[in-house]
Amino acid sequence: MTSKFLWVCFLLAALTLAKTYSLQPDQQKVLLVSFDGFRWDYLYRVPTPHFHYVMKHGVHVKQVTNIFITKTYPNHYTLVTGLFAENHGIVANDMFDPILNKSFSLDNMDIYDSEFWEEATPIWITNQRAGHTSGAAMWPGTDVKIHESFPTHYLPYNESVSFEERVAKIIEWFTSKEPINLGLLYWEEPDDMGHHLGPDSPLMGPVISDTDHKLGYLIQMLKKAKLWNVLNLIITSDHGMTQCSEERVIELDQYLDRDHYTLIDQSPVAAILPKEGKFDEVYEALAHAHPNLTVYKKEEIPERWHYRYNSRIQPIIAVADNGWYVLRNKSDDFLLGNHGYDNALAEMHPIFLAHGPAFRKNFTREAMNSTDLYPLLCHLLNITGMPHNGSLRNVQDLLSSTAPRASPYTQSPPFLRGGVKPRENEQEESYAYFLGVSLGAIIVIVFLITFTKHLIRSQIPALPDFQSEISQPLLQA
Ligand SMILES: *[C@@H]1O[C@H](CO)[C@@H](O)[C@H](O)[C@H]1NC(C)=O
Ligand SMILES: *[C@@H]1O[C@H](CO)[C@@H](O)[C@H](O)[C@H]1NC(C)=O
Ligand SMILES: *[C@@H]1O[C@H](CO)[C@@H](O)[C@H](O)[C@H]1NC(C)=O
Ligand SMILES: *[C@@H]1O[C@H](CO)[C@@H](O)[C@H](O)[C@H]1NC(C)=O
Ligand SMILES: *[C@@H]1O[C@H](CO)[C@@H](O)[C@H](O)[C@H]1NC(C)=O
Ligand SMILES: *[C@@H]1O[C@H](CO)[C@@H](O)[C@H](O)[C@H]1NC(C)=O
Ligand SMILES: *[C@@H]1O[C@H](CO)[C@@H](O)[C@H](O)[C@H]1NC(C)=O
Ligand SMILES: *[C@@H]1O[C@H](CO)[C@@H](O)[C@H](O)[C@H]1NC(C)=O
Ligand SMILES: [Zn+2]
Questions:
Q1: 294 Cβ contact list (under 8 Å, min separation 6)
Q2: Structure letter (DSSP) for residue 362
């Protein structure tokens, strides 16, 4: 009798929570856009009216903590998996996997080797497994076969394909007979020019303006296709950029014999694989070599980077201070702008803006983790995500309370709901929403307490098993 009552309580609580979070089916569309290397504060360098238009009518997060290392491939894979690099396996743009005995480098076709990508399952695959369709225009990894799949529609990577052509494809897929619900769009700037000019160069102004024009073009095309008000547009990036200088170069040749190690990845995080028997010699020679280079044995890499438990992370990594460059000698390639540094540095942080029926309007949040995007995407697409390192709760307040929801406080017959216009009165709605969530949470807590008491009283011998099961995920979190 008691347990039946408890189950009813639990179901009610679960329903309350689930219902307050749901989004109407015709609003379950997402277009995720990455402007590579768009540092968070580029928004304020020159007028960026289109970015500001999105912010005013949508949401803006000022500081997004991306993942270490702050490079392109690791961060783009985090955006679509919600995992840290050590968990998704794309730990750098240049990698060596000692188990596979294979290398990965952007300079050749290695990136098409599926095995490097299959430690995780990107969102387009999960979306398709849920019965939906996805379309990708040059997003890193979307033209690679992963777990035997590609996105439903995709363009093979070709940097010469213009932004306008990429947008045309995205619009075509969203408006086709069997429309996609998830679109992924990638553009190489302002990263490319940021590397060549350095972010502090005044010539970056026109580059940022051009990116703003590109966004304007996208908005215009979405409006023309009548998609602007129905899809959820998220604009972000993989990392920022910092100014480098030939005055701030650390030359490994000054400290290490090239025959004693293999340099897997170079700057600003040198990934060092010592030759057989040379580990101590290499480590000692480098450990205190330069005040602007911090050298870690793999097992000593700081916890906060979540950059340890993967065989593709090399036995020694040497991390340069902001704006410092690691080279073997000065003949190696040098760029005036670079990224890859500590993800706690503001210079490494990307932008984050969003607009659409699911999002609040003119709302600014101070900070988020880039791992939180994945659960947000899963929520918007109404799909069940894979295990990840983010939390929807952390970004829940970006979501509009005005989007029609099947909340118990705004009950209307289901056949009417589709036509209900978003409400103007945000205050009232968000109060009801808050109340719904709070009530749901209280019911769940009361249920858990009662349930635990019930369990303790009725099944004392079963308790140890029960405890070990629930405590494991908590310890891992
Ligand atoms: C979300 O998806 C589930 C199926 O996985 C479906 O039962 C439910 O109705 C969907 N919710 C909305 C609001 O579309
Ligand atoms: C690893 O691959 C290289 C060729 O890329 C080969 O020469 C070497 O023998 C392989 N090592 C092992 C342990 O298989
Ligand atoms: C890349 O795109 C350009 C411009 O559309 C085209 O001319 C070129 O043939 C494409 N290259 C490949 C390899 O498809
Ligand atoms: C480089 O090292 C010097 C000496 O320790 C230090 O004063 C300086 O702040 C470092 N530079 C950076 C960018 O951290
Ligand atoms: C850098 O090292 C390469 C290979 O050892 C050598 O050929 C080159 O002369 C060196 N350059 C400088 C500037 O020392
Ligand atoms: C947006 O919000 C800011 C303060 O958060 C306010 O000053 C501004 O008037 C608002 N703009 C619009 C268009 O609502
Ligand atoms: C980011 O994640 C860390 C570790 O999980 C957490 O302590 C922090 O509060 C998160 N930041 C935000 C803004 O949610
Ligand atoms: C990140 O998520 C993965 C997959 O759930 C998990 O195995 C890993 O322990 C998590 N990492 C942290 C630091 O929580
Ligand atoms: Zn990048």
A1: 318, 319, 321
A2: S
Q: Which atom of ligand 6 is nearest to the CA of 364?
A: 5
What's the token pair of residue 431? 């109060």
146-156: average pLDDT: 98
d(CA 392, CA 234): 15
Task: Please choose, from the candidates 239, 268, 323, the residue with its C-alpha nearest in 3D space to the C-alpha of residue 38.
Answer: 239
pLDDT tens across 268-288, in order?
Answer: 999 999 999 999 999 999 999
Rounded alpha-carbon distances, angstroms, from residue 403 to 28, 330, 400, 418, 420: 12, 57, 6, 11, 9
CA of 57 to the centre of ligand 6 (A): 10
CATH no., domain 249-338: 3.30.1360.180
pLDDT > 90? residue 315: yes
Domain boundaries, the chain: 2-20+430-476, 26-83+120-242+343-403, 249-338
pLDDT at 22: 57
Q: Does domain 26-83+120-242+343-403 have CATH number 1.10.10.10?
A: no
Active site residues: 72
pTM for this prediction: 0.84
